[in-house]
Structures are given as structure tokens and as C-alpha cells.
Design brief:
- The complex is a heterodimer of chains A (119) and B (214).
- Chain A contains 5 helices and 2 strands.
- With 119 residues, chain A is mainly alpha-helical.
- Chain B is an all-alpha fold and 214 residues long.
- The longest helix of chain B is centred in the middle third of the chain and has 35 residues, at 81-115.
- The chains are: A mainly alpha (119), B mainly alpha (214).
- The A-B interface holds A 31-34, 36-37, 47-56, 59, 71, 82-86 and B 13, 17, 31-32, 34-39, 41-43, 45-46, 57, 60-72.
Chain lengths: 119, 214
């Protein structure tokens, strides 16, 4: 099934919501594994989000302008003897998209029913 | 033991990432590889203890994400004609090579039969020849089919059809060679090709020539 243009799928909503939550706790920037771990904890899932699912969603969100990213300074990573991290952060457009997605999700099904014709 | 299994899991992930990012633009390719590398490092570092379950978890994350990886690869490739062309060349290069092998195997079989080198073994079977014949018989038809497909695609895109023609010739020679030696080995592959061809024609898998713009 093809999704509507601009519509968010559950993993994208989860990423944006987690990004907002992380920022509330002072973490503006996050990397892929961090978001996967947060989502796992929030959803009490047994497994972390699969690599393909996670990074494809991050890529889509970035292309849509809902996230922006930058690579960490290689000197910092080298100092800690680990690979470089790619840090993401949510944009204002991303926050708006999340709010829209939540608004659509919270619309009760009955309100979408056609009203009976008034006599 | 456990670190070895974890290392095997991580290597499998890296190999898979290497495979599905091949043919994409260098920046996209390097970026995805580096990102997965970082993710792997974080996951192992974050684990309280490296157990068998960590290794399985790493492997499962790769396995469950494969459909998304392929979809992502195709979407990225679709937006880049140059790289699609690169992948196409790599694919048809591989098919030409296989078609060539098919011809060699078929010719080898014919020469072997003509000289009387190939004989039935004690059990009345063909032994190792059978495997060689099946491989040759399988490859020829698919090379020819790939050639026809490439010709249609080249026609639709206004490119030279020489690659496609070469594949058709090589594949047909492979079929002819194997048919002369052990004709019955090509029945199965030909049926498979017919089914694939029917499926592609039925569901619009063949590229069609675009009508000229009005």
C-alpha cells in the first residue's frame, strides 16, 4: 500500500516524538543508536529498531526537512577511540509535522462520518 | 567464543551494508557505512555484558531491516540515472561472463562426447558431467533473456543496443551448445525463462518506448 505524500508512518512519528522528548531532557542532538535505544525503552520492545528501518526513516525525515544532521568532529571520536557519530536534531518543520500527525491521530473516527442530511 | 560470534555478526552486518550501498553515490555510500559502523560500536559498548544474545540481536537487526535497506537502495538508485547505468553495466557484465561460461561448458561437453571422453559411469549415470551441463543449461537462457531485456531498455532510453545484442548472441550460443550435447538439461531452464518472461510482460516489467512529446 502506497502512503500519502507527506504522511508520517509510525516509526517516523516515534523518531520525532523521541527527539522532542530528548530535547526536553537537554539532549538536542541524538545519533541513530541513541534514538533506537530510547524508542525501545519507551515502547518496552524486546528488540532495537532494525538498522534498515531506522536509517531509512532517518533519511526520509531528513530529506523532508523534519530533521537536520551533521557529522561529529573526527578529532573527538578519535580521542575516544570510536567511530564518528552522525548527530540529528529535529527542526521546527519537524515539530509541526509531529503535531499535525498527532492531531490527525487524535481525531475521533465518528467525526469523520458524514453527517445525516438535516430535514 | 562469544566475542567470535559477535565479531561474525558485526562482519555480516558490514558485508550486507557494503553490498546494498554498492552503486550508490560515494557520499551516500560512505555516509551509510560509517553510520552503521558507529551504530554497531554503540550497541556493543552499551551492552552490559557481551553475551550470545548481543550477537543474535545485532544479526536480527540486520535481518529485519533488509527489506527497508533494499527499498532505500532502489529509491536512491531511481533518482540517479548515472548510478542506475553503473549497476546496469555491472549486471550485464556479469551476465555476459556467465553466458560465456555457458558457451565454454557446452562446447566442452560437445567436444568430450565427440571424442568419446564422456561416457556413462558404472551406475549408468553421467556423474560430474551432469552438474556441468545443468550449470551451462541454466545460464544460457538467462543471459539471452537479459539481452532481450537490455535491448528493450536501450531502445526505450535511446541508447545503443549492442550490449543487449551481445548478450542474446552469447546466451543463444550457450543454449545451442548445451542443446547439442545434452538437450534435455535445458527443458527446466527454458520453462523458467518462459514463466519469467510471461510474468514480466503481464505485469509491465518490460521498459516500453516512450511516445514522443507532443
Amino acid at each position: 500500500m502506497r502512503r500519502k505524500a507527506g504522511a508520517l508512518i509510525p516509526i517516523e512519528v516515534a523518531i520525532l516524538a523521541t527527539a522532542v522528548e530528548l530535547r526536553r531532557h537537554g539532549r538536542v542532538n541524538f545519533h541513530g543508536f541513541m534514538i533506537a535505544k530510547e524508542i525501545k525503552e519507551q515502547e518496552q520492545a524486546r528488540l532495537l529498531t532494525a538498522h534498515g528501518t531506522l536509517y531509512r526513516a532517518l533519511d526520509r525525515l531528513q530529506r523532508a526537512g523534519f530533521l537536520e544532521s551533521e557529522w561529529e568532529d573526527p578529532v573527538l571520536a578519535a580521542a575516544e577511540s570510536r567511530p564518528r557519530r552522525r548527530f540529528y536534531r529535529i527542526t521546527a518543520v519537524g515539530e509541526q509535522a509531529l503535531a499535525n500527525a498527532r492531531a490527525v491521530a487524535s481525531v475521533p473516527a465518528t467525526s469523520l462520518q458524514p453527517r445525516p442530511a438535516s430535514s | 567464543m562469544i566475542p567470535s560470534i559477535l565479531s561474525l555478526s558485526a562482519s555480516s552486518v558490514r558485508l550486507w551494508v557494503h553490498l546494498y550501498t554498492t552503486g550508490l553515490p560515494a557520499s551516500t555510500r560512505q555516509s551509510r557505512r560509517a553510520e552503521i559502523d558507529s551504530d554497531l560500536w554503540e550497541q556493543v559498548e552499551c551492552a552490559e555484558a557481551v553475551t550470545l544474545s548481543t550477537a543474535v540481536h545485532v544479526f536480527l537487526r540486520m535481518l529485519l531491516g533488509m527489506p527497508s535497506d533494499i527499498a532505500w537502495h532502489l529509491a536512491d538508485l531511481g533518482g540517479n540515472t548515472m548510478n542506475r547505468s553503473f549497476t546496469s553495466k555491472a549486471f550485464f557484465g556479469g551476465m555476459t561472463l556467465l553466458g560465456g561460461l555457458s558457451v565454454l561448458a557446452g562446447v566442452g561437453l560437445m567436444v568430450g562426447f565427440a571424442e568419446g571422453s564422456w561416457t556413462l559411469d558404472d551406475d549408468g549415470g553421467y556423474g560430474a558431467i551432469f552438474l556441468l551441463a545443468v550449470i551451462a543449461g541454466l545460464v544460457g537462457p538467462f543471459a539471452a533473456l537479459a539481452g532481450i531485456y537490455e535491448m528493450r531498455r536501450a531502445q526505450a532510453e535511446g541508447r545503443s543496443q549492442n550490449t543487449g545484442k551481445t548478450l542474446v548472441v552469447v546466451g543463444t550460443l550457450g543454449i545451442a551448445a548445451i542443446a547439442g550435447a545434452m538437450w534435455w538439461t535445458i527443458i527446466g531452464p527454458l520453462l523458467a525463462v518462459a514463466i519469467v518472461a510471461y510474468w514480466m510482460l503481464q505485469f509491465g516489467g518490460w521498459p516500453r518506448q516512450q511516445p514522443p512529446a507532443a
